[in-house]
TrEMBL record:
<comment type="similarity">
    <text>Belongs to the MT-A70-like family.</text>
</comment>
<keyword id="KW-0949">S-adenosyl-L-methionine</keyword>
<dbReference type="GO" id="GO:0001510">
    <property type="term" value="P:RNA methylation"/>
</dbReference>
<dbReference type="GO" id="GO:0005634">
    <property type="term" value="C:nucleus"/>
</dbReference>
<feature type="region of interest" description="Disordered">
    <location>
        <begin position="19"/>
        <end position="55"/>
    </location>
</feature>
<dbReference type="InterPro" id="IPR029063">
    <property type="entry name" value="SAM-dependent_MTases_sf"/>
</dbReference>
<dbReference type="GO" id="GO:0001734">
    <property type="term" value="F:mRNA m(6)A methyltransferase activity"/>
</dbReference>
<keyword id="KW-0489">Methyltransferase</keyword>
<feature type="compositionally biased region" description="Basic residues">
    <location>
        <begin position="24"/>
        <end position="49"/>
    </location>
</feature>
<dbReference type="GO" id="GO:0036396">
    <property type="term" value="C:RNA N6-methyladenosine methyltransferase complex"/>
</dbReference>
<dbReference type="Pfam" id="PF05063">
    <property type="entry name" value="MT-A70"/>
</dbReference>
<dbReference type="InterPro" id="IPR007757">
    <property type="entry name" value="MT-A70-like"/>
</dbReference>
<dbReference type="InterPro" id="IPR025848">
    <property type="entry name" value="MT-A70"/>
</dbReference>
<keyword id="KW-0808">Transferase</keyword>
<protein>
    <recommendedName>
        <fullName>mRNA m(6)A methyltransferase</fullName>
        <ecNumber>2.1.1.348</ecNumber>
    </recommendedName>
</protein>
Amino acid sequence: MVREYQAEVKANGISDRYDSSRTWRSKTKHSARHKSFMKKVRNKRRHRQERIQRRTEEYEDEKVLLPSEIDPKLEQRVLYALLNPTLEIPTQGTKLLEMSGTDFENLPNLLQKLYGQDLICLQSDGYTITSINLESISRLIEMKNLSLRQSNIPRFKTDPEEIEYLLNAPSVRDKETKRVGSEIQELLTAKSYQEQLIKQKFQSAGGSQLREFCPQKTREDCRRVSRSGRACPRLHFRRIIQSHTDESLGDCSFLNTCFHMESCKFVHYEIDQTQETESRKGGIKPRPSLQSLGSKLVPPQWLNCDLRNFDTSVLGKFAVVMADPPWDIHMELPYGTMSDDEMRQLDIPSLQDDGFIFLWVTGRAMELGRECLTLWGYERIDELVWVKTNQLQRLIRTGRTGHWINHGKEHCLVGAKGNLQGVNRGIDTDVIVAEVRATSRKPDEIYGVIERLSPGTRKIELFGRQHNCQPNWLTLGNQLEGDNLHDPELRERFYSRYPEKLHAYPAVT
C-alpha cells in the first residue's frame, strides 16, 4: 500500500517539500489524503495481525486434538480387524476392542488417525464407524509389511573414509586427461629400434648368470622354515666353527674381511659348496666361460711402474681412464699414500684427448678429486656410488673408514673431455651394490659399466693391483708382478723408452 501511494504521489507530482507556489487549499487537501491513507494502512495491518493470531490459536487447538504416538503393532491389529469379513457396518469402536485387543484409551486417537487418512468414516460421536475403505486399508498393510522387511535388511554403513575416497576420486575428465598424458609419456619414453639393438648387444650371453642368496643364510635354517622340509635352490652359507669359536657371541662384524680370523671368537661363514653339486644334478647349467661364449677379448696387460715419474706419453691415447689413487686421508693404511701436490702433478692429460675418466674418491679426497679433474682438463658430468655390503649381503655397520661416522659407501667421480663419440647413454644406473672384499679393492661391476658405456675402446687403469688386471685393459701400478704387454706397437714404444726393463722381469705368458 505504501509503495502504491508513493507511486501515485510521484505520478501526480505531489511532493512533501514545502513549495511556496502551492495554495493553502492544495496543501490541506494533500494532508487529509495522506492521513486517510495512513489510517487505512494501520487498519489493514491490525486486521492482518488479528487473523494471524486467530489462525495460531486454531492451530494450537487442532494440535491438541491430534492423536498421540500410537504403537505400530497396535495399529496393524486394528487394520486387520477392519478387514475381517465378519465385521458388520456400521459398528461401534468397542467391537474393534474385542477383535484386536486394543486398549480403550488408545482407541479414540487411533480412530481419529484412520479417519484423517480417509480409511474410515465416523459419526459425530467419534466411535461409530459408518464405512470402511477396504482397498486403501489393504494397500496400507502391504506398504507397512514391505517397510518392515526392508528394515530387517542390514544396511551398509558408510565409512567417512569411503566418503572421502569418493570425493577425491578422479572424474571422467580427469581420467581421460591422465590417459592421454600416459600415452604421450609412453611414446616419449619408448626405446627406439637402435636403443633396443644396443640393449640386446650387452645382454648376458647364455642368459643371466646371477644366483640369489637365501635370506635364511644356512641350509639348516632354510629347511627349518620350509614347508617341504627341503632347502631352496638359492645360495647358502656354512658356518665356520673352530675350537676357539664361541657361538653365543654371534656373527663377526667383519665376517670374511676379519684380519684375525685365526683367533676371532665370533662366528664366520663361507659359501656352502655342497649345494653346487646338487644344483647341477637338478639341471642348473654351470656358468659358461668366456671362451665358450665366443667372446673376443684382448688379454690383460700391465706394467709395474711408479706413476709419479713415469712417462705416460709412450702409452698412447685411451678412451677411458680409471684411477683409484692412494689418497692421503690421514688414516693408517696398509699401503703408501701420495700427497695432494703429487696428485695434482700427475701427467693424466697426456693419456687422453677425448673420453671419460673415472676417479675413485673417499673422505676428504672428494673435494680434492673435483679439483684435480678441473686441473687435468675434465668436466665432472656424473658420479657413481658404491653401496657396500658384507659377506651375508647385508649393509655393513662397522667399516674401517670414517672419522665420525662409519662409511658404508664410496664415490666415483665421472669426468669427460673432448668430443665424445660412439658412447652408449642411459644403459646403467649410477648405483652399484656390491660386497666388500680386500682393502681398497673396488667392485668388479665397474668394469662392466665402463665397457657398456664405451665398448671396444682402449682403456687404462692407474694405481691398480694384480686383481685389477682385466681383459681389454692396461693396468699401471707399483704392486704388479712385472710387465705383461701383448700389443706389438705398445711393446716397441715402451721398451724403446725403458730398455732396462726389457730383461728386468721374466716374460709373462
